[in-house]
Amino acid sequence: xxPTILITGAGSGIGRGLAVSLAAQGHFVGITDFRTEAAQxxxxxxxxxxxxxxxxGLDVTDLTQISQMLAQNWPIxxxxxxxxxxxxxxxxxxxxxxxxxxxxxxxxxxxxxxQALLPGMRERGFGRLIHIGSIHSLVASPFKSAYVxxxxxxxxxxxxxxxxxxxxxxxxxxxxxxxxRTALVEKQIADQARTRNISEQEVVEKxxxxxxxxxxxxxxxxxxxxxxxxxxxxxxxxxGQTLVIDGGWTAQ
Length: 252
What we know:
single chain; about 250 residues; alpha/beta; Rossmann fold; 7 strands; about 15% strand; globular
């Protein structure tokens, strides 16, 4: 029997792509998002394709909502911490409320979801924690101070969880893709064009893909198969690691 998967931030982008693909492989997928209607939209896509999923509005920073999620009694064995957002701004002008929001969702939210679901994984004797990091978990870019700080923090958090779960069949790893062309990245293209005073095409060619020898965006399918490997029994000894899918960016 395939493990049940819960994905945060699955109302669009990477989360939606993972949900649709993993459900098509026979997994029951719990689809959560801060925007309830977006989570339901993803769920409808999955169900219309004949697969199993449930949708739930969930703010990963809110312990009350996390408790309500636990009350669904989904036997979650795989947690994909994907919820995230971006803000492009110079450091001097970076809004403090945006800094608080980004770090709260991506760092506190990852912590709280992991803390909530880890006991059930221990009881079932199996668990896979997959945190969606970024190339910016490893390197930095200008105008993304909160995002870079949060994504770096996720790597350290995952390593700590890996050490604390070394005595059972639970693993904790981070996927670090370079740019995946999603709605979030499309917005970044527009924001960076405005901040840098260049065209959107120049942002793609001279900013986003310039450090990448392959000169290609990452596809959702590449992330899906990385997830498939990490949740398999063959990956039981891969924990506390960062799996980098960056077209050679960090090889330089």
